[in-house]
Structure formats: structure tokens, C-alpha cells
Amino acid sequence: MSFKLKSSSWQSTQKIARLFVQTILEKKPRSQGALVLGLMGELGSGKTTFIRGFIKSFGIKKRITSPTFLIMRKFFSASQKCYLYHFDFYRSSSRKDLKILEFDKIIKNPQNIVLIEWAEKIKNLLPKNAIWLTFQHGKEINQRLILIKTKNK
Ligand SMILES: Nc1ncnc2c1ncn2[C@@H]1O[C@H](COP(=O)(O)OP(=O)(O)O)[C@@H](O)[C@H]1O
Ligand SMILES: [Mg+2]
Q1: Whole-model pTM?
Q2: Is residue 63 part of a domain?
Q3: How far is the CA of 66 from the centre of ligand 2 (A)?
Q4: Would 153 be classed as within a structural domain?
Q5: What is the rounded distance in angstroms from the CA atom of residue 137 to the CA atom of residue 101?
Q6: Which domain CATH number covers 62?
Q7: What total number of domains does the chain contain?
Q8: 124: alpha, beta or left, given left = phi > 0 and alpha = psi -120 to 50?
Q9: Which atom belonging to ligand 1 lies closest to the Cα atom of 39?
Q10: Closest C-alpha among 97, 17, 86 to residue 49
Q11: Cβ–Cβ under 8 Å, residues 140 and 8
């Protein structure tokens, strides 16, 4: 399944993320591995903005910066009793880093929700049931297009 959404502001992108979370939570429990979201799209297209809205919906108040310099940040949602992982592979997606971060272990755990910026860099490492989101700039200055695909390829 795939659908395309148009956002006209960063607030609207966060609202889309919130609505997305609602539909995801209805689908619980997950049996196979973590819920993995692969986010693609050029710089400034809204990936981090979307993830902020997404993580905020889990009752997490901590400021959600792009983990570009950290590669990974981890959050705990007390309300949903799950961990959220925010990866950003813009700078690095080396095997060594993935191993240190225990990426494999993280995406295997059905209690985790994993959000990945620049997921195209590690495409083959994502599970088959990953949800793919592609972000694009629109014609207007604050316009973004978000393509959501629930089945890979
Ligand atoms: N409709 C929109 N959706 C998301 N971000 C928007 C939108 N309109 C303007 N922006 C701005 O564009 C920038 C997007 O940056 P960011 O989310 O960090 O992108 P990325 O993580 O893809 O590099 C932010 O400064 C945000 O305020
Ligand atoms: Mg970003």
C-alpha cells in the first residue's frame, strides 16, 4: 500500500506524524521484530521534523535534535512501554558503527520502534516489513510531499 500526502508547514508534517502514530498503535502487538520506519529524502525535506512529531506523540518531552553527530538517540515511552530509536546515517553507516550500536539486535526486538534517517544507505539491512517514507520539497517554500509505502520495493 502506498499513499502520498502534501504538507504545507512543519506543523502539518508533525500532525501527519501524530496521525500516523495513532494508526500504528492500533496495529499492536507486533510479532516479527521492531517496527522500522525508513525515511529517505534530501536535506531539509522534513525527515527530522516528522520524527519530532512522531516521538512527541509517545509522551516524550526531551528535545529531539537530529542525531547527525550522534548517529543514534534512544527514548523510552512510559505511556507505551517501548523504546524508540532515532538513527541518522547521513554521516556514517559503516558496518563497524552498526555493530557498535547493536543495530541488528535493536531491529529484532518487537518492543522497539526504530526511525531511520538516510535509510537508503542501509536499505538491505532493513526488514521486509519496514515502512518507507520518502520526503520531497514541493513547489511552495513550505510545501513538502510525503510518500508512504508499507511494502518494500
Ligand atoms: N511542510 C514542512 N514540513 C517539514 N518541514 C518544513 C515544512 N515547511 C518548512 N519546513 C522547514 O524545513 C526544515 C526541515 O528540516 P528537517 O526536518 O531537519 O529536514 P531533514 O531532516 O530532512 O534534513 C525545517 O527547518 C522546517 O521548519
Ligand atoms: Mg534530519
Answers
A1: 0.94
A2: yes
A3: 5
A4: no
A5: 31
A6: 3.40.50.300
A7: 1
A8: alpha
A9: 22
A10: 17
A11: yes
